Structures are given as structure tokens and as C-alpha cells.
Amino acid sequence: MVPSMSAFENTSANTEVEVFRRLYPLEFYDRLLDKSVRLDARSLRHFRDSTVAFGAVSSANGSALVKIGSTTMLAAIKMEIMTPSVEAPDEGNVAIEFHMPPICSPVVWPGRPVEAAPVISKQLTDTILRHVNPSEFLLADSYFLSFRVKYFVKCSGMIDLKELCLVSGKAAWMAYLDICCLDADGGLFDAALLSAAAAFSHLQIPVVSLNEEGRVFIVSEEEAGKSKKEAVNKEKRKLNLRSIPLSLTCILHKNYIIPDPTAEEESIIETSVTVVMDSSDQLVSLYKPGGQILAFSKAIQECVELTRQRVKELLRILEAAVSDMEVD
Amino acid sequence: MEFVSPEGLRLDGRRPLEMRQLRAEIGSISKADGSAVFEMGNTKVIAAVYGPREVENKSQQISDKALVRCEYTMANFSTGDRVRKPKGDRRSTEISMVIRQTMESCILLEKFPGSQIDIFVQVLQADGGTRSACINAATLALADAGIPMRDLVTSCSAGYLNSTPLLDLNYVEDSAGGPDVTVGLLSKMDKVTLLQMDSKLPIDIFENVMQLAIEGCKAVANYIREILLENTKQLEYRRGK
Fold first, then answer.
1. Integer Cα distance of B123 and B38 in angstroms
2. Where would a tag sit more exposed on chain A, N or C end, judged by fewer CB atoms within 10 A?
3. Is A103 in contact with B75 (Cβ distance < 8 A)?
């Protein structure tokens, strides 16, 4: 069967567009932006659809699968018992690690470590934990901005480490949070932070009791009913999360501020601003790592405003997922 | 310890010749050329295929066929105790090699000379039979990527505990110390491409257990065919035909 002429014409026109897109990505993007459309046909200020699902990993104490557009993050928390440090006998600890296995993106190869992974691990740790270190206060007196911005490496205090204490000085919880990126399509830090917050919302602290030598051990599900020993904490409880930090990354191009970029957009445009705010509407951190575009304070304020909107939306999604879970 | 009760039920309530519940999904990773999630009971693995693409290390390039590279990793949270070293340890390296050789036997490598096909498998939840689940997921991912294959390779394991051959062992049964036979089968051609066994078995019982594993492989192949057919129907429907 001979294909029609119009099919031929369409194919060659499509090929031309594809070739232009590959060879001149910046010009292609400019032309789309002039018509107020982005590469994936979104409008300029449109955020991608985000979903949160709890309990994706049944063997973990808390877990969540988060998708922002195509970017997929799987976060899981495993709790272990450790001896608290001498300086902080009443506090437990949280260890956060972010992994980008080769399945997530064609640019990740085994044997070639991605530079994004440890950077995001560190950023997540700083944002989530109670970690004010005075020596890390920096004054960004750069010529970018018309006012001084104090770059805080402070966190929002989402988790009070004192809640992770079991027996003062003897036993405390170590929560290992592992976030695995399953699909890297831009906005990795935003998705990772959302998945961390979701996993902590889902976390149930297991029941423990003391054995004969006075050591604390985790009571497994089967033994819980049969145990005659006094349980140190009677039932599984959830963590009391105070303010939840959430973020938005925007890319800056000419005088456009474009929120929630995909991987293709991030590869074309190098300048990005990440703003972290918490649920009590306070600014937690601001991150603009260089880039060709210099941002005036007005641009930064616009990013903060966009983040405020985004955080409200994400909190609504989180709360809806939490209430669905509690219904079950 | 009793793995098969006098009534003939295993620890998780299955019959000795019963497989765990299978569940598969194609196209989960948007950035990959082909991807699939495969679940066998509580074991859950995700596979991604990138390729055929340019060879990373030119010295390894083969002029008349494609180079296959495979990496098997376990997520830190996949097992009961947190995994400290997700890859690079001996077990992961061995399983990577086993999966690579199994898939090499069925991909038509001569069609893509001088290129590289990458198969990455990540275990999200491990409850026994991860090797088999990885091979099944890799087959689906390769089909999703449109890479031509001789046949569908499927895999299943079988063991022998309490004098009973058991199909599809879970973690508790696998760590009981009894024999564990893993078979990889080219389903339509009825050819065994992978056969591994540990522990000891008399020859006649071994033949029974291997036959049981082969039946399991055929059941998995039927399920995979259904999934692929359903996926194609969906694609046709979306295309508007």
C-alpha cells in the first residue's frame, strides 16, 4: 500500500523540526518561549503534575514513591538502634543518602559517578536536620544582587532528634533515609525533598523492648503479641513533624523565570535558582550556583513567590495522601 | 524446621507446585529506551535498557556485533537489614555476569555492530529469586526497547525441602540450606540457556526439580506474552487505529 503524499510531507517536516531541535536547542527554545510555550507544551508558569504514594517498599519502616512529571523518586527509611554520642545523649540521628543508579538517565554510566548525587545528598541533609553551624554562615556580597543575602546552611528543624531517643545515654534510633532516583527528568532536588518529607510522614517507629542483658532490641511483628517483656515503647508511633521544608527550582533565561524545569530544559539553560520554604511560610534556603544570567532582587523575589505557591500546592497533595493513608 | 506442613502447605500458604503472584509493567522509566518493573511475590525489580548506543570505551568495541553490558544493583532498603554495599561486591558482580550472558544468548547482536546495549537492573525489594526476576524484567525491557531477540528468555527457581520439590522459593526457603536450582529458558525454542544449582541433590531428584523449574519458566513466558500483547494493544489504541 503506497503511503499518501501528505504522510510523506508530514514526516519530512517533522524530521526538520527534530533536527533543528537537536542542533540548535537554544534557538528552538527561544522560538517556543516567544509563543509562551515550553518544550513539553506546558505554559510558562505551569507546574508538572505531582503525586505521592506511601508504602511503596513494604520491608522498610517508612517509604514513599513521589513523581513530579516524569521525575520519579523512591524514598525508604530503615531504623536501627545505636548508642547515642556523648555530646548528645538524648538525641538520635538521621543519615540521608541520595542515589542515582544508571537506570534513571542515559547520562549516568556505571563507573562514572554523577556529580549531582553527592551534592543533592548534602543539600538534603542540611535542609532536613537541625544543624546550625556558625562557621558556615556566608555573606554573599556578590554583585549579582542589590542587597546582601545571608546564605544560610541552616535547616528548618523538621525533625526533633530528641524524639528519636529511647533510653538516655544508652540507646537511640538511627534512621537511614535512602532516596533512589528511578527516572531523572529535571527538578531532582525538589522531588527528592518531597519524597523525604513524605517518607518521614509515613514512618512508623517500631516497638522495642529490653532483653536479659539490658540491651534494647526491635520486637518483630510475630513476637509482639507473645512477648512477656515490658516494651519500652508500647505501640508503633509516628514522628511529630514540625515545619515541612519543600522547594522549587526555577531556571532563568533572558528575562523569563521558568519554574519546574525538565531535564531537557536544564541541559539547555544553565542558570537556576532553588528556593526552599517551609510550611509556616518561612524562607529556609536560597541556592543560586553561578550561571550566565545575573539576577536582580526583583527576580529573586519572584522566585520566592512562585515557591510559596508551589509549597502550598505540594502541602495539599501531601495532606491528601496522608489522610487517605489514615483512612486505610 | 518444617517448610511443608503435613497438609501440604508452605510457609506462605502456597502449594509446593504453586508460583508466587506475578506482576509486570512496561515503560515505567520515561528516559530509558526500554524499561520494565517485574514482581514475583514480594521480590520487586526494575530494569532499564539503553541502546543500541555508542560504545563508551572504544577499546571494547566489537566490529561485527553489539556489546552487551549489564549491571545488577540492590537498593539499600531492599533487604531486611540495610545493604551497605549495593554493588561491586562479589554476589552482585556474579549476578551481573550471569544476566549478561543469558541475555547475550538471545539478542540478535549481529544487527547492531560496533554499538553497545546497556541493561541495568535494580532490586527494589528482595524476597528470594532476585536473579530470576531480573532476567524476566530484562526480557520485558528489551522488548519494550524494540531490540530484536531470538526468543523470550524467562527464568524461575525451584528447590527441594522436606523431600518435596518446591517451585519459586522465597527468601526463607532459599536460606534454609537446601538445594536451589535456577533455570533460564528460551521459551518457544525450549532450550535451556542458564542452569545454576547449589548444595547437593541426587541425579534423579535433580531432574525432577529442573523439570519443575522449566515449567515455571514456561508459565512466566505465557504471562510475559500477555503483558506484551496488552501493551501493543494500548499503543495501537492510543495511535488511533
1. 10
2. N
3. no
How confident is the model at residue A302, as a pLDDT?
A: 92
Residue B43 has pLDDT above 90, yes or no: yes
Contact B124 A57 (CB under 8 A): yes
Mutation test of the interface with chain A: which of B42, B68, B77, choosing the one with the most A Cβ atoms within 10 A?
B77
At residue A134, the pLDDT reads: 34
List CB contacts of A127: < 8 A, sequence separation 6 or more. A155, A156, A193, A245, A247, A276, A284, A285
**What are B180's three cell numbers?**
536451589
Q: Which of A76, A104, A110 sits opposite B77 (nearest CB)?
A: A76
**pLDDT, mean of residues B141-160:** 95
The predicted model gives B99-124 an average pLDDT of 95
- Span B182-208, pLDDT tens digits: 999 999 999 999 999 988 889 999 999
How remote is the C-alpha of A327 from its chain's centroid?
A: 26
State the pTM of this model: 0.86
Low-confidence ranges of chain A (pLDDT < 50): 1, 132-156, 223-230
Q: How many angstroms separate the CA of residue B103 from the nearest CA in chain A?
A: 17
pLDDT of residue B85: 72
Residue B3 has pLDDT above 90, yes or no: no
B124 and A105 within 8 Å at the Cβ level: the answer is no
- DSSP 3-state of B22: strand
Across the interface, which of B71, B124, B125 has its CB nearest the CB of A102?
B71
CB A269 within 8 A of CB A247: no
**C-alpha cell read off for B125:** 525489594
Average pLDDT for chain B: 92
Q: How distant is the Cα of A105 from the closest Cα of chain B, in angstroms?
A: 6
Q: Chain B residues with CB inside 8 Å of A70's CB?
A: 30-31
Q: Does residue B43 contact residue A275 with C-beta atoms inside 8 Å? A: no
Residue A202: name the closest of A243, A248, A237 by CA: A237
**Cell matching residue A21:** 531541535
Of B50, B79, B80, Cβ closest to residue A106: B50
The grid cell for A91 is 538525641
List CB contacts (< 8 A) between A59 and chain B. Answer: 42, 77-80, 125
3-state secondary structure chain A: CCCCHHHHHHHHHHHHHHHHHHHCHHHHHHHHHHCCECCCCCECCCCCCEEEEECCCCCCCEEEEEEECCEEEEEEEEEEEECCCCCCCCCCEEEEEEECCHHHCCCCECCECCCHHHHHHHHHHHHHCCCCCHHHCEEECCCCCCCCEEECCCCCCCCCHHHHEEECCCEEEEEEEEEEEEECCCCHHHHHHHHHHHHHHHCEECCEEECCCCCEEECCHHHHHHCCCCECCCCCEECCCCCCEEEEEEEEECCEEEECCCHHHHHHCCCEEEEEEECCCCEEEEECCCCCCCCCHHHHHHHHHHHHHHHHHHHHHHHHHHHHHHHC
Residues of B in contact with A39 (CB under 8 A): none
CB–CB contact A263 B80 (8 Å): no
